[in-house]
Write a structure and sequence with these properties.
264 residues
């Protein structure tokens, strides 16, 4: 039954309890979405800084658009006023850039520079930026500048759709491989899922020899049953490890990526 059916149609105490429950659920959604958008922004910043430092060495900061550098000066001056000069980052630090500034940097790159910066499989820059602007709009409206109303289910669905389109736009071939791999993971035997999660929880990363041997099988068969003559090389195994680790970090209960195993 729905939360409304269970709580909202009762007496005042029930309504007060339901308000607390709904607030807690809303807090969980905000935390999850906030972490997701934070990771997207930080990843873009790391890629921008790595590319500019690689191509321009010590002069990398000068290749950030003037408007973005001006915004950094304003932010840093305000932070210095609040915290003091000794407690803030140096001016030439990528952390000072906002999401909008990062988009300005990407827009200022040539098509080939943009492709190398994001390690993209194509040059679909316009579509990528339009999708990223949708993500930024949600972040700005609901997180950076909170409003007195909750985000609607429709708005949250639109955000998820936009986030899912990002890898589809710039790395469609790899995303297809990820989708295929997770499809295999969802159908594997129960002991494999238990081993994966236990390994991740015990070591904070997937690094046991048993899990590595399992991931080396193209069809994810148990190590003692795998009869493939051509097992995957170390590079592919590490790629699979990274995908699974990211899934476990985002879904520790296994209710999304491992839903067939969990029966949900």
């Amino acid at each position: 039954m729905s939360i409304k059916a269970n709580h909202l149609d009762g007496d005042e105490d029930s309504r007060n309890a339901s308000s607390l429950l709904l607030g807690m659920l809303e807090g969980i959604r905000i935390l999850f979405i906030g972490e997701l958008l934070r990771d997207i922004e930080l990843d873009l910043k790391r890629r921008v800084e790595r590319y500019l430092r690689k191509t321009h060495a010590d002069q990398w900061w000068a290749h950030i658009p003037r408007d973005a550098r001006r915004n950094v000066v304003v932010r840093r001056r305000w932070s210095a006023h609040q915290l003091g000069d000794r407690r803030i980052l140096a001016e030439h630090d990528i952390s000072w850039l906002s999401m909008g500034d990062v988009l300005r940097v990407l827009a200022a790159l040539s098509p080939s520079e943009w492709q190398h910066c994001l390690d993209s499989e194509n040059r679909r820059r316009g579509e990528f930026h339009r999708t990223l602007h949708r993500v930024k709009a949600y972040r700005d409206y609901h997180l950076a500048h909170p409003k007195p109303r909750r985000a609607t289910v429709k708005e949250q669905a639109q955000l998820c759709t936009a986030v899912m389109r990002l890898p589809l736009v710039i790395r469609p071939a790899e995303w297809s491989e990820v989708d295929e791999f997770l499809g295999k993971v969802a159908t594997i035997t129960p002991w494999s899922i238990d081993d994966i999660q236990a390994d991740a929880w015990q070591y904070s990363e997937l690094k046991s020899e048993r899990v590595r041997r399992w991931l080396a099988c193209p069809d994810l068969e148990p190590p003692e049953l795998c009869g493939h003559m051509r097992r995957l090389d170390l590079h592919r195994v590490r790629w699979r490890q990274q995908i699974l680790q990211q899934c476990i970090n985002a879904d520790p209960g296994g209710r999304v990526f491992f839903k067939d195993r969990q029966g949900t």
